[in-house]
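Field log, afternoon session.

UNIT: design team B
ACTIVITY: writing a sequence onto a fixed backbone
BACKBONE:
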């Protein structure tokens, strides 16, 4: 899902170039917990759903995953991760591996801690974290047995994946 038309076109170009058309769907919409419409403001490499900007479709990600499960999900949705992870339906459709970019928001000034606790409640363990700064960072989480963390430099830790590696 990519609500920005220009970025969606870039993704489609890369999907074609890598021969993944039969395996990847690119939907021009924002991930949400209910279908609808919203305003998308885009600036540089960042975008946000808010009160101004272009009108975009909102698609209920959890409804879509219930109909078509995914093994791996990469979630970079500029603060909307809280609504998705906090929705009780997520537990029924959650993937084996979740690649999550968390964001500090006024509603969630403790973004990293909130996401880690919620993932733990959902049965995940953090296998890698990187790019952590005061306002955002990345977490890779997997359902499975715990592993001992190891430092991989640049402030990142890797925890090892059970089974296949990413």
């Amino acid at each position: 899902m990519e609500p920005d038309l220009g970025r969606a076109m870039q993704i489609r170009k890369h999907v074609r170039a890598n021969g993944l058309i039969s395996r990847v769907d690119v939907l021009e919409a924002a991930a949400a917990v209910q279908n609808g419409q919203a305003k998308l403001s885009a600036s540089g490499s960042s975008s946000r759903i808010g009160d101004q900007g272009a009108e975009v479709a909102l698609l209920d990600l959890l409804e879509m995953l219930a109909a078509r499960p995914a093994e791996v999900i990469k979630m970079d949705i500029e603060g909307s991760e809280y609504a998705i992870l906090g929705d009780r339906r997520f537990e029924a459709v959650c993937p084996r591996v979740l690649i999550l970019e968390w964001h500090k928001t006024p509603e969630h000034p403790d973004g990293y801690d909130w996401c880690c606790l919620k993932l733990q409640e959902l049965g995940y363990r953090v296998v890698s974290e990187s790019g952590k700064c005061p306002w955002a960072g990345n977490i890779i989480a997997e359902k499975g047995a715990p592993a001992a963390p190891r430092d991989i430099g640049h402030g990142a830790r890797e925890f090892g994946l059970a089974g296949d590696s990413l």
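LOG NOTE: DSSP finds five helices and ten strands in the chain.
NEXT ACTIVITY: expression trials, pending approval
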